[in-house]
Automatic annotation (TrEMBL):
Protein name as catalogued: Uncharacterized protein
Domain of life: Eukaryota
Source species of the chain: Popillia japonica
Amino acid sequence: TIVNYLTEVITITQIWRGEKDVKVAKC
């Protein structure tokens, strides 16, 4: 779905910026 697509894009973007940002975003 579109929501899942956006979630994946955001996750990839966060990973691209740094794992620390990903952990904060998931929390």
